[in-house]
Design goal:
Elements (H helix, E strand, L loop, with lengths): L6 H8 L3 H6 L7 H39 L6 H26 L2
């Protein structure tokens, strides 16, 4: 979804109302424009919060995998599994950071 701050200048440049931009050429009363702008802003805020939540969940999953990797020790196969799980956990945490901080 485009940045809601760009919607109003776009409508002014095209000399149309926000409702006309979103719905096509359906004529809507003037009072609906403010509600549509507010709805777009809130939708964008919820999308941002979802990205942050997904990022946090990935980081927590990575930490749990890292804690689990310390339980494998002993034989060469167990050491390999521990190292692989440690590497995967670091990757998951990095993906979580990327998801949280990307625009």
């Amino acid at each position: 979804m485009p940045d809601y701050a760009l919607i109003r200048p776009l409508c002014e440049a095209l000399d149309i109302r926000i409702g006309e931009l979103i719905e096509g050429d359906v004529q809507q009363p003037r009072g609906d424009e403010e509600r549509l702008t507010d709805l777009l802003r809130r939708t964008q805020e919820l999308e941002r919060q979802n990205k942050i939540l997904y990022g946090i969940l990935l980081i927590v999953l990575g930490i749990a995998m890292q804690a689990l990797s310390h339980s494998f020790y002993g034989s060469a196969v167990q050491d390999f599994l521990s190292g692989a799980l440690m590497g995967i956990s670091v990757g998951v945490m990095l993906i979580g950071l990327y998801v949280m901080f990307r625009r």
